[in-house]
User: Fold this.
Amino acid sequence: MALTNEIIKTRLVEKFGDQLTDWVEPYGMLTFTAPKDQNLKVLQFLYDDTELRFQFLTDLQAVHYPTRKGEELAVVYHLHNLVDNVRIRFKVFADITKPDVFSATALYQTANWMERETYDFFGVNFLGHPNLIRILNVDEMDYFPMRKEFPLEDQTRVDKDDEMFGR
Amino acid sequence: MSRPVQFNNKVKMVEAPEGFMGDGFMATSLEKVVGLARKNSIWPLPFATSCCGIEFMATAASHYDIARFGAERMSFSPRQCDLLMVMGTISKKMGPILKQVYLQMAEPRWVLSVGACACSGGIFDTYSVLQGIDQIIPVDVYVPGCPPRPEAILDGFMKIQELVGNESLRRRTGEKYKDMLAGYGIQ
Amino acid sequence: MQSTEHILLPEGSLEKQTTTLNLGPTHPATHGVFQNILEMDGERIMKATSTVGYIHRAFEKLAERRPLYQITPLTDRMNYCSSPINNMGWHLTCEKLLGVQTPKRVDYLRIIIMELARISDHLICNSIVGVDSGAFSGFLYLMQYRELIYEIYEEVCGSRLTTNIGRIGGFERNFTNTAFEKLEKFLKEYPVQLKEFENLFLRNRIFMGRVIGCGPISAERALNYGFTGPNLRAAGVDYDVRVHTPYSSYQDFDFTVPVGKTGDCYDRFLVRNEEMWQSLSIINQAYKKVQEFKGAEADVFHADVPAYYLPEKKDVYTKMEALIYHFKIVMGETEIPAGELYSSVEGANGELGFYLISDGGRTPYRLHFRRPCFIYYQAYPEITKGSMLSDAIITMSSLNLIAGELDA
Assistant:
C-alpha cells in the first residue's frame, strides 16, 4: 500500500494528538505545525517509525513573519522518505524575543550547517548545537540580516545614489 | 587519429624599440627595453572567486590562450607575480584577504579588475558585498562584463601590457605614487 | 586554534604537537574561496575546520526584492559551471506555482540544454581532478568542448556562462538551425574526445594510485550528511531526482543512473564519467524526438501564457491585450498566487531545491535555495580525517565544490 498523505496524517495524529495543527497540502506536500518543544520528538518519530521512514532531511530554514505576534520566527523542516518517495514539511514557531529551538544535529548531521545558517540570518538559537556561530556573514556582524526590518543594501556606501538606483 | 604535421612559421615577432642601430649593437633608452621585456612576460596571479574565474579558465585554455601574451606561468604566490587579476565578487569577508595579498606583492605590481562585481559590486548591491575592489586597493584596468568574454579579458590584458610598456622607471618611487597608496592606507 | 582543544596525536607520531596549516581562501584558481584550517601531524590531517562565506552575496535577501523572472540571473550565479540547470529549476518552480503547463517540445529542448550543462559541469570537475593530481593536458582537451557547448548556449540565449536561459513557460526564441548544427557537431565529436580522456585517466596506474581509497564515505554517513547527486551515488545510493520525481518529461527517456561502491574519489570520478555518457545518450534521444515535430508544431518554443510570457513585439504594437500584458510583465505588476512550494531538480552536484513562499505580491515573500554543495561540504572534515594533505586536495576537487553555490 503506497504511503499517502492521509496515512501519514493518521499516524502522526495517533502519536501526537492535537498538538499538531494547521494541516494543509499546498501543491501536494503535506504540511503541519508542531509546538516548539516537540520538534525533536516529531523528527525522531518520523525517523524511527517503520512505516513512515522519513530518514533524509532535505532542508531546514526559517521564515520571518513580523505580523504574527508571539510567533514571528518559523523554522521549517523538509523531510524526504527516499524509499517510498514522499516528501513532508513541518514548521515550528518561535517568539522573536526568545527564539530557542532544539537542535536536530544529534539525529541528522546535515542539520549542523543548516542551523548555523538559520542562526546567522534570523537569530534562531538552537539549543544543543555543537558550534552555533555565524557561517556566511562576517563574524563581527551584530544583527540578523534576513529579518524583514533590515535593508538589503549597505547603508554606508557612498558611490550609489538610492534615487538613481530606484529603491 | 593523426593529422599531417604542421609547423608554425607564422610567428609574430615583437617590434624592437626605437633606437640607434650600429654594427653589432643597438642604443636605446633603458625604459623602453625594460618596458618591452616586462610587458611580454607578465606573470599573473589569478585571484578567481566566482563566475569570472570560469571565464578566466576558458581564457587560459587552448581556445583563447592567454599564454600567447606572455602569461604562461600562473603564479599563485603573490611574491612572484606581477599582475593581480581579481576575477569575481569580493565580499566584505574577503576584502582584508585581498588587501593582504596585494600588500604581499613586490613592486612593480599592477591590478586588473575583471568583471562587474570586482569593478563596482555588479548586480550585488547588498550588505555583504564590497562595492568594487577600488575601495581597498588601487586598480589599473577595469574589464566590465558579467562575465566578460575571454576576448574582453584579453583586451584588458593588452591594455595592461600598454601600461607596463610605457611606464616610467621612476614612477614607483615618486611622491605621487606614494600619496596614492597612502589614500588606500598602504605605506 | 583554540588552546583549550586537545588533539591527540596518534601512537608512534614523531611530532610533539600538531602543526596548524591554513589552506586559505586564496587557492589556485579553480576551486573558489573557502578556507580550511588543518591541524596536522606531519603530513596527516588530524582535524579540519572549514570556513565558508567568503563570497556571500545575499541571494536570498536579493530575491525578496525582485519579481520572479528577475530572479533567474541570480540563480545563474549559484552553480556557475552549469547555470542552465539552475535556470530551468527556477523556471520549473515558477511554473508549478503559477500552474503553467509547458508543451512537449519545450520540455525536450529543455532536457537538451540541461544535459549539456550537466556534461559541461562534470567535464570541468573530472578534468580538474586531473589537474590537481598533476595532469594538465586532459583539462585542455576537454575545455575545447566546453567552448562548443558555450557556442550552443550563445545561439539560444546570447550568453556563454551565466546564461539566464529560458523564460517562464519556455524559451525566449526558437532554436535556430545553427544551434542544431552545432549540437550535431558536438554529438559527433565529443564522444571521441571523451574516449581519449578516458584512455588517459581511467586505467592509468598513476592516477588510480592517487585516487583510489582517497576520501571514502559510507552510504549511511552520506545520507545522514544530506549528500545528493554524484557524491551520494558514488557511495552506493541510487537517488536521482530525475528518476524519483521526473520533471520536464524525463520519464519519456531511457537512461541508467550509475552507482558506485565505496564513495571514494575514484568512484566519484567514474560516476561522473559514466553520467556524461548517459547524458550524451539522453541528448541523442531528445534530439531525435525534437526532430519528429513537423510543421506548426516545430515552431512551438513556449507555452501559451500571455500573463507570464512576454507577447511578441508585433502584437504589442497592434493589439490592446498584448500591450497590457507586456506592460504588466515588464513593470513587475503581474500578481503571483499566494502559496508555498518546494521544488527541486537534479543539478550537477545534487538536488537543487527552491523553497518559495509567495504572499500574492509581485516579489516572493521568502525564497530559499537548497544548495547541494553547502550541505555536503559539512562532511569534508570527516572525510579527510587521517588522510594526507595531497589526498585532501584531491578529495576537495573531486567533491566538486563550487564556491558560488556554497555561499549564495
